[in-house]
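From the methods appendix. Each design record in this collection lists the tokenized structure first, followed by the designed amino acid sequence. Records were kept in a plain field format so they could be parsed without special tools. The example shown here is representative of the layout used throughout.

RECORD:
FOLD TOKENS (312 positions):
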């Protein structure tokens, strides 16, 4: 049997969440004074559009960047709830001013920027893109690929999301702060681990630095495995183009069918094998990409006649 104290605490927290959901800031404040804990109340206020409750919760110290979800409540962080309010940008900008974290992926591997592009939220994308350093890697993470492979969400294919992120002006060479809270795997490292040649081509055309070292001092080439013969050749081409300050020509590699010579096979057997710290699973490609919001439909290649459309 649950102790009476815990039972009373749960009832108090439920009453608090119900008050915030109704927009009753006065009663919510009283319940907080009585010892209520604001599990996900910030998100409930945002979803309901209750600005008075939101301001009251901020003043009372409700967390802007909550940890794991509590035993009751709405399982969406405040920043994601604000992004979903596409008709009201007030909550989003308020959270930005309050220091909301923008580079922590959710349980599906989506950062707030990925979430904003996925839902076509015009007001959030420019601000998030300016401070983003994790989304390109998050789009190739195990969580994102697994969620896409399961087909239980409307997530676009990883490489399609990478193209949309680059079209939203995300800097592929953005570096995490000195004390990063979230993702620390550089995008090119993640693409190599995922053995995604198309993603590497997209990143290379966007001007990514193939010699950028991660927190362990490893560059992308160090992540290669012996059986990644095509990736070996592609990374060498990316490095050569970068060193010569020439635009990367992805044409020979985009088909994923370019030839591997006997010399390449011989050289690859002599290369040291490096096992990546966290290998990712390559998800199958979608047969038909969902439609993209007009503001994100710009193709990465300006000479391409194909417009990438991602969202409904």
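DESIGN:
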């Amino acid at each position: 049997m649950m102790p009476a104290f815990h039972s009373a605490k749960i009832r108090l927290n439920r009453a608090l969440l119900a008050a915030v959901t109704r927009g009753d800031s006065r009663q919510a404040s009283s319940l907080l004074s009585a010892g209520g804990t604001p599990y996900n109340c910030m998100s409930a206020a945002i979803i309901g559009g209750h600005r008075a409750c939101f301001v009251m919760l901020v003043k009372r110290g409700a967390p802007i960047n909550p940890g794991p979800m509590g035993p009751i409540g709405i399982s969406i962080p405040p920043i994601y709830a604000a992004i979903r309010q596409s008709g009201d940008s007030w909550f989003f900008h308020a959270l930005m001013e309050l220091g909301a974290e923008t580079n922590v992926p959710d349980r599906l591997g989506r950062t707030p920027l990925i979430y904003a592009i996925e839902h076509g939220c015009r007001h959030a994308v420019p601000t998030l893109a300016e401070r983003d350093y994790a989304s390109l890697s998050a789009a190739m993470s195990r969580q994102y690929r697994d969620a896409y492979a399961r087909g239980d969400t409307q997530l676009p294919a990883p490489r399609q999301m990478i193209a949309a992120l680059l079209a939203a002006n995300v800097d592929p060479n953005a570096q995490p702060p000195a004390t990063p809270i979230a993702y620390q795997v550089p995008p090119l490292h993640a693409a190599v681990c995922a053995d995604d040649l198309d993603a590497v081509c997209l990143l290379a055309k966007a001007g990514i630095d193939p010699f950028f070292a991660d927190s362990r001092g490893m560059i992308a080439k160090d992540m290669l495995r012996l059986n990644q013969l095509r990736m070996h050749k592609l990374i060498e081409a990316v490095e050569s183009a970068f060193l010569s300050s020439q635009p990367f020509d992805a044409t020979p590699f985009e088909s994923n069918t370019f030839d591997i010579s006997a010399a390449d096979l011989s050289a690859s057997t002599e290369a040291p094998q490096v096992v990546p710290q966290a290998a990712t699973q390559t998800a199958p490609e979608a047969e038909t990409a969902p439609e993209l919001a007009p503001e994100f439909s710009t193709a990465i290649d300006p000479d391409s006649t194909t417009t990438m459309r991602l969202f409904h």
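APPENDIX NOTE: DSSP finds 15 helices and no strands in the chain.
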